[in-house]
Write a structure and sequence with these properties.
- The chain has helices spanning about 70-75, 110-120, 160-195, 210-215, 220-225, 230-240, 275-285; strands at about 60-70, 85-95, 125, 135-145, 240-250, 260-270, 300-305, 310, 315.
- By secondary structure, the chain is of the alpha+beta class.
- The protein has one domain (about 15-200, about 210-315).
- It has a seven-stranded mixed β-sheet, with helices on both faces. A two-stranded antiparallel sheet has the order 8-9.
- α2 (about 110-120) runs parallel beside α7 and α3 (about 160-195) crosses α6.
- It starts with about 60 loop residues before the first strand and ends in an 8-residue tail after the last strand.
């Protein structure tokens, strides 16, 4: 299997990229700051030696990003005084990437009340005909997006294209389409740099880049070193995550071949040491003040979670994880 020069520069991500991959998304625009939901904090970037699986109530870092389309930006802002009414539909649970097998998760019946409560905080309310006809169709899906590892002679199906798609899909979940495009460009730049360094030097000549220069000038490494935020986004992208995605469409277009997307909210949390049952309710709560709010970049929030079998979101709620008798 042929190897791109980029592979050497993506050790920290564990994947490599084909330059043929491309992403399209909504353009950036400046937006006002949005206050995080009650109970969430900005992360303090504190490293703990104790694995999360051994912590009683581990503090987890969540990402939330809402990107609005040009069609969505034409609509008046939704507030509690100017609500929008919607119908909510589940697209079901989906395991993406290298699925680890059957995972315990919440059902749509358990997730929907939590999602309705989070949406309500921003002025989105369930439609009640005939008084309040829906103007939005909100479609949601949830699951895990798992890290792929490079294929070998026994499993050649894990091609560079598949690895690249997996990485960029997860980048979009973590930081939105704009972040995925930025990462794509960084990887292309690293590939170009590595290709230039691989050009044979004439006898007695010096290489264009020595190993120390290559490590220092690696575009991905430079991006990581700029801020703790950049380092976190790369770490979240390079590993497995649980996610929830809610996409709002114009209701009248929903039954037509050309559906009009208005906005999409994506939320993630690392899978390390925690389960979906444990984290999904808090993940839904993380989006409470961000649904339908155009964001320039993803918000990174921190909140302690609880062990399986108990869930806190607004008023305390208990979700049983036992099978019905």
């Amino acid at each position: 299997m042929a190897t791109s020069p980029l592979r050497a520069w993506l050790v920290l991500l564990g994947v490599w990229l084909s330059p043929a991959t491309a992403l399209l998304g909504a353009p950036e625009r400046k937006t006002d700051a949005i206050a995080p939901p009650e109970g969430f904090k900005e992360p303090r970037w504190v490293f703990s030696l104790l694995p999360k699986s051994m912590q009683k109530d581990p503090r987890l870092d969540y990402t939330v990003i809402t990107e609005m389309t040009p069609a969505g930006r034409k609509l008046p802002p939704v507030t509690k005084d100017n609500p929008a009414y919607y119908e909510l539909y589940s697209a079901g649970f989906r395991q993406l990437g290298d699925a680890p097998g059957e995972e315990k998760t919440l059902t749509a019946e358990q997730l929907e009340p939590l999602l309705v409560r989070s949406l309500e905080g921003n002025g989105f309310r369930p439609a009640k005909r005939p008084e309040h006809e829906p103007s939005l169709l909100i479609l949601y899906t949830w699951g895990s997006h798992n890290r792929l590892v490079e294929g070998d002679d026994e499993n050649p199906s894990l091609s560079s294209d598949r690895l690249a798609r997996n990485l960029l899909e997860r980048a979009a979940l973590v930081g939105g389409d704009a972040f995925a495009r930025e990462l794509l460009q960084l990887l292309r730049d690293a590939d170009t740099q590595a290709a230039a360094a691989a050009v044979p030097t004439p006898p007695g000549g010096r290489p264009v880049f020595d190993p120390g220069m290559l490590e220092f000038a690696n575009p991905v490494s430079l991006f990581r070193s700029k801020s703790n935020r950049n380092a976190f986004l790369l770490d979240q992208t390079s590993d497995s995550v649980y996610y929830l995605v809610a996409s709002a469409y114009d209701y009248r277009s929903a039954t037509t071949p050309k559906k009009t997307l208005l906005w999409r909210t994506r939320m993630t949390v690392s899978t390390q040491g925690v389960s979906q049952i444990q984290t999904l309710p808090t993940l839904v709560q993380a989006g409470a003040t961000y649904f339908g709010r155009d964001m320039k970049e993803s918000a990174i929030l921190s909140k302690r979670t609880v062990r399986e079998g108990t869930v806190e979101i607004g008023a305390p709620t208990v979700i049983s994880t036992e099978e019905p008798k």
